[in-house]
Automatic annotation (TrEMBL), chain A:
This is ACT domain-containing protein. It comes from Actinoplanes sandaracinus. Residues 5-78, 90-166 form the ACT domain. InterPro entries: ACT-like_dom_sf, ACT_dom, UPF0237/GcvR_regulator. Gene3D superfamilies: 3.30.70.260. Pfam families: ACT_6.
UniProtKB/TrEMBL annotation, chain B:
Its cofactor is Fe(2+). SUPFAM superfamilies: Peptide deformylase. Binds 1 Fe(2+) ion. This is Peptide deformylase. Fe cation binds at residues 95, 138, 142. The keyword Repeat does not apply. GO terms for molecular function: peptide deformylase activity. The active site is at residue 139. Its EC number is 3.5.1.88. The keyword DNA-binding does not apply. Belongs to the polypeptide deformylase family.
Length: 169, 165
């Protein structure tokens, strides 16, 4: 069964999630995973759904354009069983805003074989913040920490790398 | 041996009944909880609703856990109530009854719990901290028909649970 990946972006107002999910429900879509946030006042939602064609999804979401919302729909392959993840870590970076912080930090993570599974960046006034969840290859976290410290010194920002284990109760 | 019930299941969302701790059926239930906890790798606590029994009974054993400070070994409590809670701390937790998710949940790092022991009905007061306190709060929640999902810290504080190497 194929799935659809849908993004909806536009000026935020109350009721967008209700409008989007209602429009999709009316054409028989099953919403599975979704995430939504506001990025500098823009509504931004990404979701996966199934049970309908991309044409039906596009038609259902079409009327949202009058409110300034841009929806994109594309078919995607369902998730394949993933290989076991590495060790879970959280990276925080903060400091004065400057060009290329995200690029420099995430390049270091990628070069160390780490996989970013969640990421937030925020610019508030002069302060830039990056928080990322990273799966790190087993036994390599100390090495990644050292490499992050080097790039943080170059960028003149603060970086921390800490383990984010879950306790199963 | 009974199997662990996973969400969605009505029994996990139903407040458990208070029990007569001296009832032989409750003593048997206590033994069964301990047996399943011991047989489940990494399991540090199990509540009756998790094996399909809507009752205020749970077992805990955090012995040797790296995040534990005070520990009381392996024990079973009935009708437990938290009477003091302080030093609230965030932490990421998961649950055998919600196998695919984890979430950030604030829990008190110091608690006082009043309960009765199965078999004797002897009242006990347990004062504990750190990981044992978190485990007790998680199990007492189960007995009240609550999951950690009812307490997650925010919309982006729920995570896909991964299989780690
Ligand atoms: Zn649980």
């Amino acid at each position: 069964m194929h799935e659809l990946a849908i993004t909806v972006i536009g000026p935020d107002r109350s009721g967008i999630v209700a409008d989007v999910s209602e429009a999709l429900a009316e054409v028989g879509a099953n919403l599975t995973d979704s995430t939504m946030t506001r990025l500098r006042g823009h509504f931004a939602m990404t979701l996966i759904c199934n049970g309908l064609s991309s044409q039906d999804a596009e038609r259902a979401l079409g009327p949202l354009a009058t409110g300034g919302l841009i929806a994109t729909v594309r078919p995607v392959e369902p998730e394949v069983d993933e290989a076991p993840a590495g060790e879970p870590y959280l990276v925080s970076v903060h400091g004065a805003d400057r060009l290329g912080i995200v690029a420099a930090v995430t390049r270091v993570v990628a070069a160390a074989g780490g996989n970013i599974t969640d990421l937030t960046t925020r610019l508030t006034g002069p302060l830039y913040l990056l928080v990322a969840e990273v799966d790190v290859p087993p036994g390599t976290a100390d090495d990644l920490g050292e490499r992050l410290a080097v790039v943080a010194a170059e960028l003149d920002v603060d970086v921390s790398l800490r383990r984010s284990d879950s306790e199963i109760l | 041996m009974r199997k662990v019930v996973t969400a969605p299941a009505a029994v996990l969302s139903t407040p458990g009944a208070e029990v007569d701790a001296c009832d032989p059926g409750i003593v048997e239930l206590a033994g069964e909880l301990v047996a399943i906890m011991r047989a489940s790798p990494g399991c540090v606590g199990l509540a009756a609703p998790q094996i399909g029994v809507s009752a205020q009974v749970f077992c805990v054993d955090v012995t040797g856990h790296p995040k534990a400070a005070t520990t009381h070994g392996e024990f079973v409590l009935c009708n437990a109530k938290i009477i003091e809670a302080s030093r609230w701390r965030p932490g990421r937790e998961g649950c055998m009854s919600v196998p695919d998710l984890t979430g950030d949940v604030r829990r008190a790092a110091r608690i006082v719990v009043e309960a009765v022991r199965p078999g004797t009905g002897e009242p006990v007061t347990i004062t504990t901290d750190a990981f044992e306190a978190r485990a007790l709060q998680h199990e007492i929640d189960h007995c009240a028909g609550k999951l950690f999902l009812d307490r997650v810290a925010g919309a982006h504080a729920v995570y896909q649970r991964k299989v780690y190497l």
